Amino acid sequence: MSWLLAACPSSPDWRLDWPGLFAAAPWLQAMAGCPQDAAHHAEGDVAAHTELVAAALAASPAWQALPRSEREDLFAAALLHDVAKPGTTRCDSDGRITSPGHSRRGAVAARRILWELGWPRARRERICGLIRHHQEPFFIMARDDAERRAITMSWRLDCRHLALLAEADARGRQCRDSGRLLENIELFVEYARELDCLDQSYRFASDHSRFLYFRRQDRSPAYCAHDDTKGLLTVMCGLPAAGKDTWIRQQEPGSAVISLDDMRRELKVRPTDPQGPLAAEARERARVLLRRGVSFVWNATNISNDQRGRVIDLGADYGYRIRIVCAEADAVDLRRRNDERDRPVPAAALERMLERWEAPDLTEGHEVVFVEP
Fold first, then answer.
1. Which of 95, 225, 228, 302 could potentially form a cystine with 209 if both were Cys, beta carbons 3.0 to 4.6 Å apart?
2. What is the pTM assigned to this prediction?
3. pLDDT tens, position by position, 65-78
4. Which residues contact 59 (CB under 8 A, 6 or more apart)?
5. pLDDT tens digits, 206-243
6. In the chain, how long is the greatest CA-to-CA distance?
């Protein structure tokens, strides 16, 4: 982490040491030679664009006026905002070059990079939020769901910082519509200000109102929902050996637990076997508890939003309150703990999980608890 912090431009000259950064970061080197569509990026490949974005951010008076930690996080986001382009870029049949899904995949890739570097979780997740949504200010005002998207982003990042990153992204490219992009960013800032979520998360009437808003497309954000929840579903998530079992033993002794690992041993299902029947059995056991109104814990890795979403949907359908507990350990400790387990997760399987790792946020549940060493 120290080399990246040291590379962040600082007063009085705000100089960008691109050669030093490029030499130190393999993920920057991977951007060299990755093509971009000339209509939007006449400046060259992804590495050339990233250098210009970093330089534009460093030259921004608004960025220079931020507290140091906020400058560092935004600078890291600028360096990583297109980190997934080398893995997503393709040339379409009409000759156009596109990188579909690079923003969301970039957030996943950045999470892994920053975790390996030892970046603090809260700061890491703000950076990943910026990367996931870095293109939104360019087009959000033309969308029918602009309000919902702006409110959602306000719960994942600082919209002021997103606007600064988007401005640097627009200025760090050669294209005919750069003026329009900058105008759209200004409109986004004003819109977020009108919603009162430019520099804070949108304020809901209650956590239950927030939970229902993010689950229902037709819900007004101003609606004050009656809290009629009838039980608590605790959804564990985290990489193997991150400390999920320890938290359950210490914080939920005696609670009902549906553990996919325990069920694999009970039903003699190997990790390499089809997992569909196991998941179906786990859901049926959960329904038994849900019908009885019993609070319980669902213990699995639940690494991605989609994995957690299936469990959360089940609990929400029965009117349960959703608590997400995310266990984390730093990269070195986690790998050591995994190696020391009776049944360590194979390194290849752990790598596959890291390629899908999405941390939870408060758009998913009533409450998110982070458990760290």
1. 225
2. 0.95
3. 999 999 999 999 99
4. 14
5. 999 999 999 998 899 999 999 999 999 999 999 999 99
6. 65
Q: State the Cα torsion 326-332-334-339 to the nearest 10°.
A: 170
Cβ proximity of 192 and 159 under 8 Å: yes
Q: Which single residue is written with the structure tokens 């030679």? A: 33
Cα dihedral sign, 143-317-324-264: negative
Q: Are 335 and 284 in contact (CB under 8 A)?
A: no
What whole-number distance in Å separates Cα of residue 193 and Cα of residue 187? 10
Q: Which amino acid is at 2?
A: S
- Beta carbons of 128 and 110 less than 8 angstroms apart: yes
Residues 6+ apart with CB under 8 A from 122: none
Give the tokens for residue 232. Answer: 């608590």
Q: What is the 3-state secondary structure (H, E, C) of the chain?
A: CHHHHHHCCCCCCCCCCHHHHHHHCHHHHCCCCCCCCCCCCCCCCHHHHHHHHHHHHHCCHHHHCCCHHHHHHHHHHHHHCCCCHHHHCEECCCCCEECCCHHHHHHHHHHHHHHHHCCCHHHHHHHHHHHHCCCHHHHHHHCCCHHHHHHHHHCCCCHHHHHHHHHHHHHCCCCCCHHHHHHHHHHHHHHHHHCCCCCCCCCCCCHHHHHHHHHCCCCCCCCCCCCCCCCEEEEEECCCCCCHHHHHHHHCCCCEEEEHHHHHHHHCCCCCCCCHHHHHHHHHHHHHHHHHCCCEEEECCCCCHHHHHHHHHHHHHCCCEEEEEEECCCHHHHHHHHHHCCCCCCHHHHHHHHCCCCCCCCCCCCEEEEECC
Contact by Cβ (8 Å): 357, 312: no
Alpha-carbon gap, residue 236 to 311, rounded angstroms:
10
Contacts of 358 by beta carbon, 8 Å cutoff, 6+ apart: 107, 108, 111, 303, 304, 305
